[in-house]
Automatic annotation (TrEMBL), chain B:
CDD domains: HFD_TAF6L, TAF6C
InterPro entries found in the cross-reference section: Histone-fold, TAF6, TAF6_C, TAF6_C_sf, TAF_TATA-bd_Histone-like_dom
Protein name per Swiss-Prot or TrEMBL: TAF6-like RNA polymerase II, p300/CBP-associated factor (PCAF)-associated factor
GO biological process terms held by the UniProt record: RNA polymerase II preinitiation complex assembly
Sequence ranges of Low complexity compositional bias: 497-514
Organism name: Fundulus heteroclitus
Any Pfam family: TAF6_C
Length: 745, 602
């Protein structure tokens, strides 16, 4: 793999320490510590009584809990380092709380080893440990008990309905402008009250409560309600992911100050402690000054498992600009004929410097510095490819509402329902499919067949000085249209070509990510770390790095030459279903089953954006070519458009009737194509969607968006397939749209 | 929200748990079983929920056993083995116990192991590319109306598809070159399915395109496809399916095109009456008629049967090796006819009994409401709008009104007569299959004994009653032709009747004879006007006659008709064309010498 310009790898230890909670957490302690506490078994005491405490002591308690945990797991060195960094006195390391809880975390600590393990285990434990394994339930129990213990305090179960109904009456009676905002309280309140009833073994009351009020909840919570309704016993609460999510994360509501005051006054007047307690303990109310939001504004942003994003969460600066293209000696545009001649033998370097190619010389103020992330140096072959790319782009068709792309459909035949992932190389010369039978197949879609490199013995015979050595090393006997790669032991859910077309990544249900060589068609590395199904993986646009996300609720950043992840992006409350690199490789976006999208800084590992608004698991993400915008598609069939810089939703594209599995912007970003399970490809006018934006300062500051319902105007076309779900889309360098899917008779 | 009440979970009942416990020898108290049942339900839901996650990521809509097994495996629970099939497992139910189960058939391993027809390996997974949309074309038109079945078709099929699409949608009639590619059953099947989806699309107003659709379907029914030459090609299924489709189109969209029914009948009739056509075309005509309902059979097939029968007989009686293929086809036609006439008889009996019960004096057509359309439409009027696509290849399968084949004068034949006539063809094979056969005994006496009985006597031995499978060696056909001019229908017979329709009309029907009595019995008989001319009596004898240069059967026909009463019916017979069935190459004229006619005034 390409050499790295240092830095990154050395910084690994430091970075690991700084993974998400450390940075994210100190900013907004209030939100985070409840999670921290609940996740660390040593802090059961703290969880019980520390809720209204101020920031500083809480911090300390968090740290104490972490330290205790480290000690318990015999990671004294890490504990010592952490203690020193936090400036705590030595005696805190006394094992005073050692009896509080057992540790079911032993296994996970050695997964990543070393310094990272402390944070890692904290991150990984609640995810994989919690829900999945009944056999592990015994180990998990203490942990879960801690989580649930907050429910032990209870009021009279018979009065729950009265409390809830009282609040309902009140909210229905308030002024219209406040009603929509206060109605947000219903759902989290309902869930927590129900869980409290269940936890305290009031099964019949819980059922009655559910029956009575579940109908009032917003329809987009239906999936969660379904899970809840099945949950009627305390025993079932152990090991239920949804439940853990509810308890471990504070549900975030955004409410204007006026509305909040109303609610507070009401609850205090009524001495309605039960509800007040829940609001205090389990909800995070993000109060803002100004006009209360309207129902549609609220609906647009809600739906996520943990409520909306806090405004602070999206305040960090994101360098969404593109990196400057390296200056490549390019055949001059005004020497077209010569360029044409060059095409046959592109290896020959042009001595002339060219100014046309470096139009991006001026540094974009929004772009990260060129060396923010160490990127691999360009090899000669990469430069050649860039030249080819630029040549191709001169022939690119300018798309627009009046000039829609042609669509080529790659149909996978005889896939027997087994096609689970597709990727196409950037130059559209290869297509690969991942299948449910654990295989990965690569096809050449050009007349050029796939060939392996000769064996070592044969390679020795080759004249290494010859000009066509690259051609000579290939074994013509192995030429074929497709190659099959065997190695996984479960369905392959994600595949990705490296930009230089020499490698292929595949992620599978077996918990591993594999790197394949497309020269030898063998597996080079198996990256293990997820331990649970890995739903998606993608190479960075500059190669070398890749990101993967899986059922363990974390996304990981890897480098191809490291067997351990460089970063672990933890924060999602459910599976990470898809992960995409920002075009400048400095950020990674992940979509999750918790119905939120997060943007992570690759350098720091921080979560810099939390985007909520989807009402179902997010299955497709796409950055616009200029890096400014993000499009996301979910099982609810909607495409949402996001402004990354402001962290705002800027558009909603309705039309699909089923899960959207693929999104892609055209090369110049004028058209957004979406492919869905409903057997259609739809084209949207991205230019219009983004141009019409008026992101004034107020909107940017408050995050209150006004979405126009203009999906129909933006929809440029709907293209049906025949019983073929569209699971991948790709624009060629000339803006021909390629779609792929398996015929599903 | 409201339906949330109903959307409860599947639950495992306490009894089920107890039952399962008992089957493993554990006796559970009720409360334990109840708790267990509840927990089992919860765990099941949990597994289903996790399993559905695997389904989503596999980009499928169907939850498979494999998904559930993965969920179980990740929960450290043993997977359920043995249900890995990708196809859905059919549930069977036992009515009494409200028990549902997956059928688990025993497999004979020995048979499986020794089987010689080893299934071929699965086809290789492959990628195929085609341009689905050029420059986003089609986005202007509403996409929903065009079935975009393009992606999975190969290149030539894609072109073919486009041609068909355009042909059907009438964009460019010149592209309608179905014939050039359509001797591939596979493609024709595809075409039919496409037609079917077009027809079934409730959002698509087909309008006058129905006619094009019908002609395409008719093509599949009637065309002597090149593929039919190879006996391995199952063009029969194609024809059957096309026939079904035809009736479906007709019943759902028949009102869109006036006179469609008659056009269809005309073209079917033309094929049927054209002995030059191969048997597979005839078969198509028969199944087509059958699919259109018993009325159509009665109206077209039945009158033609006597004439056609002899042709068929000849083919069936030819035991030469070279004839084997044709003979097989003949049997197919025979079977189709049999099925058709049986239904005809049944339905007619039913309709008669119904109309008799209701005391209705309406003509038979009123029995089924849907029939009313047909009867009410002027029987002989040519289609009001001429076929716009008449010039096209396919459209030629739809007869333009009165162009090729005359619409024959038609009058219903009473049931008993019909039965006896059919019986004379099919012998016991008809009686055996016709479940209400015995019931007809009661009708028979109703027919005029004076005329009938003497004829019955010779008929008995003539019709070959010994086996159902065997064709009657000798058939006798007693016919009395009804008077055309006596029919209530006033339209004059088309001028070409004498030329083309003569062979048919010479084999007249026995309706006349039974009119007198059956009118009292069946109101329907009123439909037949009193005869105004002497009845014609045609007598057809098909027998094996070892003549010169005839291998096998050389039938001859005897026609008894009153010379005076049938001026327009020259005693021309179909016989000269007869042997040509299925052997188009043979010269026709040679056989004319086998035609004998006798005129016998009655």
């Amino acid at each position: 793999m390409a050499a790295v310009q240092g830095g990154m790898v050395d910084a690994k230890d430091e970075a690991d320490i700084k993974t998400e909670p450390a940075s994210d957490g100190f900013g907004n302690n209030h939100a985070n510590d409840s999670r921290l506490l609940s996740e660390s078994p040593g802090s059961s005491a703290a969880a019980g009584n520390s809720k209204p405490a101020a920031g500083a002591p809480e911090d300390q308690q968090t740290l104490l809990a972490v330290l205790q945990f480290l000690r318990k797991n015999k990671l004294s060195e890490s504990a010592e380092i952490l203690r020193r960094e936090a400036g705590l006195p030595e005696e805190v390391l006394d094992p005073k709380g050692a009896d509080s809880a057992g540790s079911g975390l032993g296994g996970s600590a050695d997964v990543d080893g070393g310094d990272a393990s402390a944070l890692l285990s904290r991150v990984t434990v609640p995810a994989p440990g919690g829900a999945k394994a009944p056999t592990k339930a015994g180990e998990d129990q203490p942990d879960v008990n801690v989580v649930l213990s907050a429910y032990s305090q209870q009021g009279d179960p018979a009065l729950y309905q009265v409390y809830y109904n009282g609040l309902k009456k009140f909210i229905e009676s308030v002024l219209d402008c406040h009603r929509a905002e206060l109605s947000q309280v219903f759902y989290p309140l309902f869930v927590h009250m129900y869980l409290e009833l269940v936890y305290n073994n009031h099964e019949s009351e819980a059922k009655a409560f559910f029956e009575r009020f579940s109908g009032d909840q917003e329809c987009y919570y239906e999936d969660d309600l379904r899970i809840l309704s099945g949950l009627t016993k305390k025993e079932h609460m152990r090991g239920n992911e949804t439940l853990l999510d509810f308890r471990t994360s504070k549900f975030v509501l955004r409410i204007s100050r006026d509305s909040y005051q109303l609610l507070k006054r009401h609850l205090q007047e009524r001495q309605n402690n039960q509800i007040w307690n829940i609001i205090q303990e389990h909800l995070y109310i993000d109060i803002f000054d100004g006009m209360p939001r309207s129902k549609s504004q609220i609906d647009a942003m809600s739906g996520s498992l943990a409520g909306e994003a806090k405004r602070e969460a999206n305040k960090a600066k994101v360098y969404y600009g593109l990196l400057k293209e390296p200056e490549i000696e390019l055949p001059l545009d005004d020497e077209d004929e010569e360029a044409e001649n060059e095409e046959g033998k592109p290896k020959k370097k042009k001595p002339k410097k060219d100014s046309a190619g470096s139009k991006s010389k001026k540094q974009d103020p929004n772009a990260p510095s060129q060396t923010r992330i160490p990127l691999p140096e360009l090899k000669d072959s990469d430069k050649l490819d860039k030249i080819m790319y630029m040549k191709e782009s001169t022939k690119r068709i300018r798309l627009g509402p009046d000039n829609l792309p042609s669509i080529c459909f790659y149909t996978f035949l005889n896939a027997y329902q087994g096609l689970t992932a597709v990727d196409v190389t950037d130059d559209s010369s290869l297509i690969a499919g991942g299948f449910a039978d654990s295989t990965v197949r690569v096809w050449s879609v050009t007349p050029k067949k796939l060939r392996k490199v000769k064996t070592a013995a044969d390679l020795n015979l080759i004249d290494k000085e010859s000009d066509d050595v690259l051609e000579r090393i290939m074994d013509d006997k192995t030429a074929s249209e497709s190659k099959c790669l065997y190695g996984h032991t479960g369905p392959v859910y994600g595949i990705s070509f490296s930009p230089d077309r020499n490698y292929l990544l595949s992620s599978s249900e077996d918990g591993s990510v594999r790197l394949w060589s497309l020269l030898t068609f063998t597996c080079l590395v198996g990256y293990k770390g997820h331990n649970y199904p890995v739903w998606d993986t993608q190479f960075s646009p500059y190669g070398y790095y890749f990101v993967s996300g899986g059922h363990d609720r974390v996304a990981r950043l890897w480098a191809t030459d490291h067997h351990q992840p460089l970063r672990i992006f933890a924060g999602h409350l459910a599976d990470v279903t898809c992960s995409r690199f920002h075009p400048n490789a400095n950020y990674v976006a992940t979509g999750s089953s918790d119905r939120a999208i997060r943007l992570w800084d690759v350098l720091t590992g921080n979560c810099v954006r939390i985007l909520t608004g989807h009402k179902g698991p997010v299955h497709a993400l796409a950055f616009s070519p200029n890096g400014k915008f993000l499009a996301s598609g979910a099982t609810d069939g909607r495409v949402l458009l996001w402004d990354i810089g402001h962290g705002l939703m800027v558009g909603e594209l309705k039309g699909h009737t089923d899960t959207i599995y693929s999104l892609r912007f055209s090369r110049d970003g004028e058209i957004l194509a979406s492919g869905s399970m409903d057997n259609t490809v739809r084209l949207w006018d991205a230019t219009k969607a983004f141009d019409d934006l008026e992101t004034d300062d107020f909107t940017a500051a408050t995050g209150h968006i006004h979405l126009q319902d203009n999906s129909q105007e933006l929809l440029l076309g709907t293209y049906m397939t025949k019983s073929t779900p569209v699971i991948h889309l790709h624009f060629t360098r000339r803006n021909l749209l390629l779609a792929a899917g398996a015929y599903n008779p | 929200m409201a339906d949330r009440e109903e959307r409860r979970f599947a639950e495992v009942s306490r009894d089920s748990v107890k039952l399962m416990a008992e089957s493993t020898g554990v006796d559970l108290p009720d409360d334990v079983a109840a708790l267990l049942a509840e927990d089992v339900c919860y765990r099941l839901r949990e597994a289903a929920q996790t399993g559905s996650q695997f389904m989503r990521h596999a980009k499928r809509r169907k939850l498979t056993v494999e998904d559930l097994n993965r969920a179980l495996r990740w929960s450290r629970v043993e997977a359920v083995c043995g249900y890995g099939a990708q196809d859905t497992l059919p549930f069977r139910s036992v009515k009494e116990g409200e028990l549902f189960f997956v059928e688990d058939r025993e497999i004979n391993l020995i048979e499986l192991a020794l089987a010689t027809n080893i299934p071929k390996g699965c086809a290789e997974t492959m990628v195929r590319v085609n341009v689905a949309y050029l420059d986003g074309k089609g986005s202007v038109e509403p996409q929903g109306t065009v079935p975009s079945a393009v992606q999975t078709l190969s290149d030539d099929l894609h072109k073919y598809y486009q041609q068909i699409t355009r042909a059907i949608l009438g964009e460019d009639p010149h592209l309608m070159k179905v014939k050039s590619v359509s001797h591939d059953l596979e493609q024709l099947n595809r075409l039919l399915h496409m037609v079917k989806s077009l027809v079934q699309n409730p959002y698509l107003y087909l309008g006058s395109y129905v006619r094009s659709l019908v002609s395409s379907v008719m093509y599949c029914i009637l065309e002597p496809l090149a593929a039919s030459i190879n006996p391995l090609n199952d063009h029969w299924t194609l024809r059957d399916y096309a026939a079904l489709l035809l009736s479906h189109i007709f019943w759902t969209h028949g009102d869109l095109v006036s006179g469609l029914y008659h056009q269809i009948l005309l073209s079917l009739q033309k094929v049927l009456s054209d002995p030059v056509r191969p048997l597979c075309s005839h078969y198509g005509a028969v199944v087509g008629l059958h699919a259109l309902g018993w009325k159509a059979v009665e109206r077209v097939l039945f009158p033609h049967l006597p004439a056609y029968w002899a042709n068929l007989q000849a083919v069936l009686d030819d035991y030469s090796v070279s004839n084997a293929q044709v003979k097989a086809d003949g049997h197919k036609v025979y079977g189709a006819i049999l099925v058709a006439v049986e239904r005809l008889l049944k339905m007619k009996a039913l309709s008669l009994s119904q109309s008799a019960d209701g005391g209705s004096t309406a003509p038979s057509g009123s029995v089924a409401g849907s029939m009313g359309y047909r009867v009410s439409s002027p029987g002989l009027s040519p289609p009001s709008e001429p076929l716009s696509e008449a010039v096209l290849g396919i459209a030629s399968h739809l007869q333009a009104g009165g162009a090729g084949c005359p619409w024959e004068e038609w009058s219903p034949v009473p049931l008993p007569a019909m039965y006896s006539e059919l019986y004379s063809f099919f012998g016991d094979s008809l009686a055996v299959r016709f479940s209400t056969g015995p019931g007809f005994g009661s009708y028979r006496p109703c027919t005029p004994a004076c005329f009938r009985e003497p004829r019955k006597e010779p008929l008995g031995p003539l019709a070959n009653p010994d086996t159902a499978r065997k064709m009657p060696q000798l058939t006798a056909n007693l016919n009395i032709s009804p008077r055309e001019d006596g029919s209530p229908r006033t339209d004059p017979p088309p001028p070409s009747l004498a030329a083309t329709g003569a062979g048919r009309s010479s084999s007249s029907r026995p309706g006349q004879r039974s009119t007198g009595l059956s009118r009292d019995v069946f109101p329907k008989a009123r439909f037949i006007s009193p005869q105004s001319g002497p009845p014609a009596f045609s007598f057809v004898i098909g027998g094996r006659q070892m003549g010169r240069r005839c291998q096998g059967r050389r039938p001859f026909q005897t026609t008894f008709a009153s010379t005076s009463s049938l001026p327009t019916n020259p005693p021309r017979a179909y016989a000269h064309k007869l042997p040509v069935i299925g052997r188009v190459g043979k010269p026709v004229r040679r056989w004319t010498c086998s035609h004998y006619s006798l005129y016998l005034p009655l």
